[in-house]
Amino acid sequence: MKRTMYVSGLTTKSLAQQAQVIPYWLLSVAQLRSYPEWLDPYVCKRTVIWSPGTESERPDYLGYLSYIDEHVMGQHTYLQYDDFRDPNATTWYLKDMRRRGYNPLPVLQPGGNSMLLHTEDLVFLSGLLEMDDMERSAYLDKHLMVGIRAKVHLQGIKDANWFAPYAAAIQGDHGLTDNHSFWRLHRSERSGEFGEQWIPYSPVLSRYRA
Prior knowledge:
The protein is an alpha/beta fold. Helices cover 29% and strands 19% of the residues. It has a single domain (2-198), classed as TIM Barrel. The protein is built from 8 helices and 9 strands. The strands form 2 sheets. The protein has a 6-stranded mixed sheet. Strands 2-3-4 form a 3-stranded parallel sheet, with no helix packed on it.
């Protein structure tokens, strides 16, 4: 089945130029907090999702809303504001953003409101990179190997063996960094890691994916 891999970590014009061949971008407000003038030509005519980014560098809640108002609203999709340490706060941010008239994609973090998987169309699953393989397998099995309404984006995950067991897992992402000489040398090969991928649904795949 078709899955879509977004490229993330595009923090410089050089990286954006390298990633022009990729039609799906996941951008971070924390990494692009001072919205760069060079970005506009790169984000048109492609699918872009914005996230608040890492907690240490991101703006505060109202700052994120202001950034969305000024640079994102009406052009691209964006995630809700979340709190890595407090799932209840993350639930509140989603409700408050919608109360204010925003339409963010919801984020489900460990310990968060799993009912999102039964009420939303697309949910971003966060906190997966902090888990070891066995913990991640058990977590995904618990939430995705049941009848749910939502499709999900596995944040920070790109390897096919994490998608194959779950029909709901339709999106993931993978970052580029400023140390991208390998990407420059092998761009034609590595661009195939992004965009639309064919990853067959295989529910019998072993739970432990070392």
